[in-house]
Amino acid sequence: MRIAEQQRRFKSKAVERVIAEIKNGIGNKEVAWMFENCFPNTLDTTVDFEMIDGKPDTYVITGDIDAMWLRDSSAQVWPYLPLCKEDPQLQQLIKGVINRQVKCILLDPYANAFYKDPTKISEWKSDLTDMKPGIHERKWEIDSLCYPIRLSYGYWKQTGDASIFDEQWVKAMKLVVQTFKEQQRFDGKGPYHFQRTTAWATDGVPLGGYGYPVKPNGLICSMFRPSDDATVFPYLIPSNMFAFFSLMKAGEILEKLNLDNTLLNELLKLSNAIKTGLVECGEVETKKFSKIYAYEVNGHGSTNLMDDANIPSLLSLSYLIPEYSKDETYLHTRNFCLSSSNPFFFKGKAAEGIGGPHCGMDMIWPMSIIMRGLTSNDDAEIKLCLDMLQRTHAGTGFMHESFHKDDATNYTRKWFAWANTLFGEFVWKVYREKPHLLN
Fold first, then answer.
1. Cβ-based neighbours of 254, under 8 Å, separated by 6 or more
2. What is the rounded CA–CA span in Å between residue 203 and residue 260?
3. What pLDDT, on the 0 to 100 scale, is given for residue 414?
4. Percent of the chain topping pLDDT 90
5. What is the DSSP letter of 102?
6. Of 56, 166, 377, 397, whose CB count within 10 A is highest?
7. Where are the alpha helices (DSSP H) in 87-218?
8. Measured in whole angstroms, how far is the alpha carbon of residue 78 from the centre of its chain?
C-alpha cells in the first residue's frame, strides 16, 4: 500500500534501514507490513523541501489537507530525530521544518495552520478574526507554540547543531512569550478573538469570540483544543502543562547558549506563574479515582472532567513529559481516561479507546490507542493496543483519524500522516524494548 518509490517526496536511507530491520526482525508480518506503510508516510507523501536564502526550508502538510499545522508537522517528523546522525539529508529536512515553523510563528503566533504560499487566501477568510494571507486557519491553541519548541530542543539534543537558534528563532520565542502573557489575561482579554458562521458548535467561540470568563491565576487561556475544537473552559490543563515544560526547555537553550538573558528571565517568570496556576486549580479530588488532573477549568471552581484523543491530552502527559510517568496523580488520571467515567472513552465490538467531539460519539481515534501503548510498561496492555490497531486498519495498512467502535470500516480520513508516523514510533519502541510482543 506504500506509495510507489518514484512518487515519494523524500527518501531516507536511515528510515529504509529501520524498515528493513523490523520487517526481517519480527514474527508478526501484518504489523511489519503496516509499519512499512506508516512509518515513512510523512516523508513519502507530505514534505516539500528546498533551500531558501541559503537555509533549509521544509513545508509539511498534514495529509489530505494542504496546510501545515505547527502541531502536526512537529509530531510528524519527531520519530525520525534519532536517525539524524546517520542521515545528514534527513537532518537537513528536519532543520528545514524548524525554520519554516519560525516563519509561521512570526507571521501570526495565534494561527494554528499555514500555507506554503504566503499570498494564498484561506477558505476560512470569512472567519471573524484577524486573518492574513498565508494563514489557513486562525484557531488559538496553546500547543501550537509548544510543539516547535519541543522539536527544536529534540533536534538540538540529538544532533548538537545549535545553528537553528539564530536571530529569527529568538525573535519567535519572544513572540511566544508575549502571546502566552497576553492570554494569561491579567490585563484584559488580549487581542485575540474568533468567531465562525457555522452550525458546528465546536468551531465557534462564545461571548464575542473571547470565550467564557476566567479568574486570572497564571494559567494561559486556550480558545481551542489540539483537536481544533473550541474549549468549554479556557484553562486547558494538559496544554498548560505542556507550555510549562516547553518554556523550561526553551530556557535551557537560552541559558546554555547564552542567547538572550532578558528573554530568559521573562520566560522563567512566566513559567513560574503557570506552575502556580496549575497547583491552584489543575487537580480535582474524585471519589472513584482519588486525585486526578482536570481537563479544563476556569479558575472560578468549574471543572471539565474528560479527555480527548488529540495530543497534548491527559493520557499523553507521560509521553510528552517523561517526568510524569511516576507521578501518582497522573497514574490516577490515566485510569480515569481509560474508563467509562471519561465521557469520550468508547468501547465496542471493534476496539476500545478515546475519541472526542471532533468526530462525534462512538468514534475511536487510533491515536489514543497508540498513546495508550506508548505510555504503558505493562506487556498485556501494550499487546492489547497492538492487537486493536492490527484489526482496525480496515485492510488499508494505514491509521485513520477515527473509526466507529463497532465497525472499523466506518472511518474518517484515509490519509492522516500524524497518526501513521505515531504508529511507526510505537512499533519501533516496542521492537527495541519488548520485541517478544511483536512475534
1. 170, 173, 260, 261, 263, 264, 267
2. 38
3. 95
4. 100
5. H
6. 56
7. 88-107, 143-159, 167-182, 206-209
8. 10
Alpha helices in 210-283 (DSSP H): 237-256, 261-281
Q: What is the dihedral of CA 295, 298, 299, 301, to 10 degrees?
A: -80
Phi, psi of 299 (to 5 degrees): 85, -15
CB 298 within 8 A of CB 214: yes
Nearest CA among 65, 188, 162, 78 for reference residue 115: 65
C-alpha cell at 213: 470568563
Q: How far apart are the first and last CA of the chain?
A: 22
Is residue 11 classed exposed, middle or buried when 0-12, 13-18 and 19+ CB atoms within 10 A define those classes? middle
> Are the C-beta atoms of 287 and 266 separated by less than 8 Å?
no
Length of the chain in residues, anyone? 439
Phi–psi pair at 127, nearest 5 degrees: -55, 140
Cis peptide before 312 (omega within 30 of 0): yes
The CA-based angle 108-110-111, given to 5 degrees, is 75
- Four-residue CA torsion sign, 271, 276, 282, 286: positive
Grid coordinates of 45: 507523501
- Tens of pLDDT, residues 180-203: 999 999 999 999 999 999 999 999
d(CA 42, CA 281): 38
Q: For residue 58, list its beta bridge partners.
A: 49
**Residue 24, class by beta-carbon neighbours within 10 Å (0-12 exposed, 13-18 middle, 19+ buried)?**
exposed
Would you say 94 and 75 are in contact if contact means Cβ atoms under 8 Å apart? no
Alpha-carbon distance of 356 to 343, in angstroms, equals 9
Give Cβ neighbours of residue 341 (< 8 Å, ≥ 6 apart).
288, 289, 305
Classify residue 210 by its DSSP letter: T
Q: With b meaning 16 or more CB within 10 Å and e meaning fewer, what string describes 367-390? A: bbbbbbbbbbeeeeebbbbbebbe
Task: Label the pairing between strands 135-137 and 113-114.
Answer: antiparallel
Cα separation of 83 and 102, whole Å?
23
pLDDT of residue 427: 98
Look-up of cell digits 489514543 = 368
Alpha helices in 285-413 (DSSP H): 317-320, 328-337, 366-374, 379-391
pLDDT per residue over 55-107, tens digit each? 999 999 999 999 999 999 999 999 999 999 999 999 999 999 999 999 999 99
Nearest partner of 297 among 193, 407, 195, 211, judged by Cα = 211
Looking at this protein, which amino acid is placed at residue 154? G
**How buried is residue 158: exposed, middle or buried, by Cβ count under 10 Å (0-12/13-18/19+)?**
middle
